[in-house]
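Consider the following assembly input.
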Amino acid sequence: MSAESSEPASAEEQKEMEDKVISPEKVEEAKLKARYPHLGQKPGGSDFLRKRLQKGQKYFDSGDYNMAKAKMKNKQLPAAAPDKTEVTGDHIPTPQDLPQRKPSLVASKLAG
Amino acid sequence: MAGVAGGGGGGGSNDFQWCFSQVKGAIDEDVAEADIISTVEFNYSGDLLATGDKGGRVVIFQREQENKSRPHSRGEYNVYSTFQSHEPEFDYLKSLEIEEKINKIRWLPQQNAAHFLLSTNDKTIKLWKISERDKRAEGYNLKDEDGRLRDPFRITALRVPILKPMDLMVEASPRRIFANAHTYHINSISVNSDHETYLSADDLRINLWHLEITDRSFNIVDIKPANMEELTEVITAAEFHPHHCNVFVYSSSKGTIRLCDMRSSALCDRHSKFFEEPEDPSSRSFFSEIISSISDVKFSHSGRYMMTRDYLSVKVWDLNMENRPVETYQVHEYLRSKLCSLYENDCIFDKFECCWNGSDSAIMTGSYNNFFRMFDRNTRRDITLEASRESSKPRAILKPRKVCTGGKRKKDEISVDSLDFNKKILHTAWHPMENIIAVAATNNLYIFQDKIN
């Protein structure tokens, strides 16, 4: 928590200090805004919700894929970066990029 | 410090203490994603305990009968059945990857020798029948013991097959598959007190099903806006009232709960009751809405109250009072000054569940660092306990834990900055009648019981 000033503070500074003492949340909010100044106007609003609703969405365009393959001719398409969390921009997904979607054939260790 | 609990019948005593009973799961540090437990649920008698995991598997434990010759295994839970409930899928039309993770398991009340449960992933609900087989028929006429068909012309005499005992076999079979009714991700299922219907809720809609009918489902709540740009809140949890089969509640990401009555209209978009705690507008911050999002809602066994879990607290609501909760319990208020980093590492979106004990006198919920919290509603005492391998000696009494928020850290206290936010206890369950609790700590399932005197 913020330390209390030993010098007499102006009314404004005092209110600010009071705010900090009363609301750790507002301190955290200030920290966040300092790190991400462009953070959305609608906090926790539609952007966040829409992202939640889109969970699991994968993007693939067969036209792009085939065009990219044609351009590269005999060369391999560039593989995804190790951190393949999102497929965006110039990267065209290839079969090697796809995570394994096999079901668990192994029994649960809870049953062991 | 005295523990917190309420007896099923006897009520909590001041000398109550929780002891370690069992732990299930692997010990190794490297946790496979598939092994992460995603749901825990006792059945109505408490004799069966089901878990679901991210790998789509269900493991059911059964409580051992009391046995005088083995007093230590009184009430021990051992594996009864395990099966693959859901498998990963890909919806080619929508280009959507469907996780096999089991979001919820709900038991049906037992009506015959078999046990039934509903398990769901993001898109599909399945009704599973778990039955025992301890007899086998022998002496068939048309096939021999290996199962090979006998040539009918070779049969000269007829015999009556007889039933012979065999080693107990527990079989799980999917009896119904309720699919294709949810565009968004299913977060809740709830069996109705009529034992014939159940609801399933996703982010924007709630559907009503009949347990016998899989090709039809009634939509009872739809909060999808005409224009998705106007989307401001989603459904986070839903549950049927334990006694009134026409009543259910659903919670939202804005911290509100709506109670709906299916007798008033077919489409319950208009609520009968609206529960919301007024907020002080001057204290509003960027985080306010996010931390007010309700991650779980549970009716009390009595049906008179309901409990909601938001990021920092648990609230008990009287169904007769909509304008504020009757009780509020702080789970980990010290996290309020860490919200910035919790937002950055996504922990602020963790969905904690909560549960009542059998007599509704106590409530329990999880926290970080493998801590979980219990609140006694009568004495107003609370306790923090830890699910860890260190305190896993048989019948070892659990020591209360304390998080230090100020400057001086006492011995045995842990400072907020030392908490392990990867060790989250999101799922806990309380036996419906006794003081036995199941706590899921990532890939391990801990079972704690009251001290045996």
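The radius of gyration of chain B is 24 Å. Ask yourself how this observation constrains the way the partners meet.
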